[in-house]
Amino acid sequence: MWPTKTILYPVPLVLMISGCSTLLPSFKTESSPFTSFEQARQAIEALVPMQTDIAALAKIGIDPVAQPNTVILTHADIVRRFVPSALLKREDLDPGVIACLEAPNACRGWEINASRIKKARTGNFFADFANFSRRSETTGWRFNALVLHVNNVVVYRAWGGQPRVSEIEVQTNPLGPLQEMGPAIITSQ
Fold first, then answer.
1. Which of 26, 43, 112, 135 would be a feasible disulfide site paired with 145, CB 3.0-4.6 Å?
2. What are the backbone angles phi and psi of residue 142, rounded to the nearest 5°?
3. What is the pTM assigned to this prediction?
4. Comparing C-alpha atoms, which of 64, 65, 47 is closest to residue 56?
């Protein structure tokens, strides 16, 4: 039988050799049935104004009841977005938008917000654990679209978003675990 000390020594050594960054926290958000920005874009562009109906939307995965993060807009919401201002005249608006504005009881809109974001802390485990340095990488995509329909027929569609999200955040604390102690001491007095 080996002494207990002999068994415990290899554990930290294995952690250091195996790449401790796998021990750092990570998270992801998936708020879309679409697997990519491109797939979401293609779904919205496949909608033909004045032809595509609500049933066809559900078949391609666009359904405000089934799709998370979809806002159902009232006619008043749509008016606030598209009412002509001093710079934008009625004739500058898309014909579908005008059709929607002219049908107050039949016009509805869907604002679709879809994303797949992954955030992971990377870098040196020991520097992160001791709060000397933390590095976070955020990757993925964000997509948004607006679909207007009158009497269950799409009259307008538009899309936008971020096809590629890539952000790196580095936080450095020269005092490590003592960095947060200063504000705690000041507020406790």
1. 112
2. -130, 135
3. 0.71
4. 47
